[in-house]
Amino acid sequence: MNSDYSAKTCRRREFLKSVAVLGTGWMVLRGGRLRGADAPSNKLNVALIGTWGRGEAHFGAISDENVVALCDVDENHLASAAAKFPKAKTYVDWRKCLDQKDLDAVICCTTDHTHAFVANWALNRDLHLYCEKPLANCVEEARVVRANYLKRKNKLATQVGTQRHAMENFNRVSELVRDGAIGKLSEVHVWGNRQIRRPGYLPAAGEPPKTLHYDLWIGPSPFHPYNPGYFSGGPGMNCLQWNMYWDFGSGQLGDMGSHTMDLAWNAIDAGLPTSAEAKGEPYNPEVTPVEMSATFEHPANDWRGPVTVSWYQGGAMPRSPREYVDLNKIDHGAMFKGDKGFLVADFNTRVLIPFGDTADLTYYKPRAAGETYPPVGHFQKQWTAACKGNLKTDCDIDYSGTLIEQMLLAHVAYRVGKKIEYDGAAGRVTNSDEANALLSRQYRPGWTLDG
Ligand SMILES: NC(=O)c1ccc[n+]([C@@H]2O[C@H](COP(=O)([O-])OP(=O)(O)OC[C@H]3O[C@@H](n4cnc5c(N)ncnc54)[C@H](O)[C@@H]3O)[C@@H](O)[C@H]2O)c1
Questions:
Q1: Are residues 178 and 135 in the same domain?
Q2: Which of 102, 167, 254, 431 might form a disulfide with 134, Cβ 3.0–4.6 angstroms?
Q3: 132 lines ligand 1 (CB under 6 A)
Q4: 206 in a structural domain
């Protein structure tokens, strides 16, 4: 189901080659416009849904395209984006926005609890999609989006917003692991130490401003009364005001977990786990846990044996390989353990720690210049180029959807408090009915996940 590592590497190479040759083979976009790097009309018709905060981080990349639709539940945010893209039609309801007939591509920067909805609706309308992380808010959402993408992967380009993936260190970490610098890989530990503690949903506090369509903001989730606290964060950081609550997000597991697990995921070529086990602070039905750790078992693949992958958050940490290595100094990091040593990395840097009497590195040959994995380049533009070209991106919904399905499975294991066995092909837990019931979540009437 998941593309293997060499396919991904190859995909990167193909991508680079295709960028070089684009224009020699033009394709025709909706409305008869020519698609191809050199075509004068080679611009995507883009809809940006969620226009402020993280949405603004996409302004640069989409300024090279035709921004034809803007959608935000906050009319003030919408107005400020419309000032930048005055030709775009404006909407407060993303369902109406996606009805606009001339769209080619959609960027979704809304709250986490609406990502899978927007994603499915966009894919089902044959629209290319860039969706901010995390792609989904429960296991089932991740699976439905991935299935919809896989049906259309020969005609649509997708990218999930883990733009740190373009940092060169991701390639270097991957090469070291894959090329045997730590010997046979057995364990992977990934952690994030951001701690945002909330007691429960905020109490009702006044009426929403007239410019905020609060009912649309709540969208498919169970209703919670308005409180300005959900909207009090700075641009690009406001997600921290709502993403700890079960009905709006998945806490740091989905937030920084999407980025940090990507550092490991990129190196280990894993599909779905066969089991998940998690523990942490006591369960709060309103707020996702701050402190939690989870371990997943992954079968062997064609280049490595079976591995365990562990995720730690909110103060839980893996054991350091040596006292002089203080992993606590790394806020978000990954550690790979092999039979010849450890590799410790954050997003930008890496440290190799050969370990044991046989760890003389004779078994490891560094790559020659020209043999290292090619740079990803501009992450958002990789996607716009893919929409017009060979459809290949590094963080498509197959890759990133599998990653987040695993992460969200940790919440299920945490809630049932026992090791769950997972059948990834069927998307079912085989040893707990209670866990199966937690793979999905309830929606308000009138909202359709797969519409
Ligand atoms: N890739 C990254 O590094 C990165 C960084 C920050 C945020 N994010 C992600 O981006 C998303 C948005 O985060 P944020 O901090 O900008 O949040 P935010 O609360 O500021 O929301 C962003 C915008 O979306 C609008 N919005 C919310 N729900 C909407 C809906 N249903 N329909 C239309 N518009 C809606 C808001 O009014 C706001 O203008 C989150 O999912 C977050 O995880 C990613």
A1: no
A2: 254
A3: yes
A4: no
Pair 338, 327: CB distance under 8 Å? no
| CB 165 less than 6 A from any atom of ligand 1 | no
The total number of structural domains in the chain stands at 2
Q: Is the CB of 219 under 6 A from ligand 1?
A: yes
Does ligand 1 lie within 6 Å of residue 117's CB atom? no
Do 306 and 319 belong together in one domain?
yes
Q: Are residues 83 and 114 both part of a single domain?
A: yes
- Cβ of 146 less than 6 Å from ligand 1: no
Per-residue model confidence as pLDDT tens digits over 387-438: 999 999 999 999 999 999 999 999 999 999 999 999 999 999 999 999 999 9
Question: What average pLDDT does the structure give for the chain?
Answer: 93
Place of tokens 């089902």: 124
Mean pLDDT calculated for residue range 24-34: 45
Instruction: Tell me, yes or no, whether 337 and 430 share the same domain.
Output: yes
The whole model's pTM is what? Answer: 0.93
Tens of pLDDT, residue by residue over 98-139, are 999 999 999 999 999 999 999 999 999 999 999 999 999 999
> Closest residue (by CA) to atom 25 of ligand 1?
50
For ligand 1, atom 33, the nearest C-alpha belongs to 72
Instruction: Determine, yes or no, domain membership for 335.
Output: yes
Cβ contact 248:68 at 8 Å? no
Nearest CA to 272 among 119, 421, 55?
Answer: 421
Choosing from 71, 97, 109, 395 the residue with most ligand 1 atoms within 8 A of its CB, the one to mutate for a pocket test is 109
Look at the alpha carbons of 311, 315, 318, 322 in this order and tell me if their dihedral is positive or negative: positive
pLDDT tens per residue across span 366-390: 999 999 999 999 999 999 999 999 9
Task: Residue 173: give the domain boundaries.
Answer: 166-196+252-370+402-437
Q: d(Cα 332, Cα 340) in Å, to the nearest integer?
A: 24
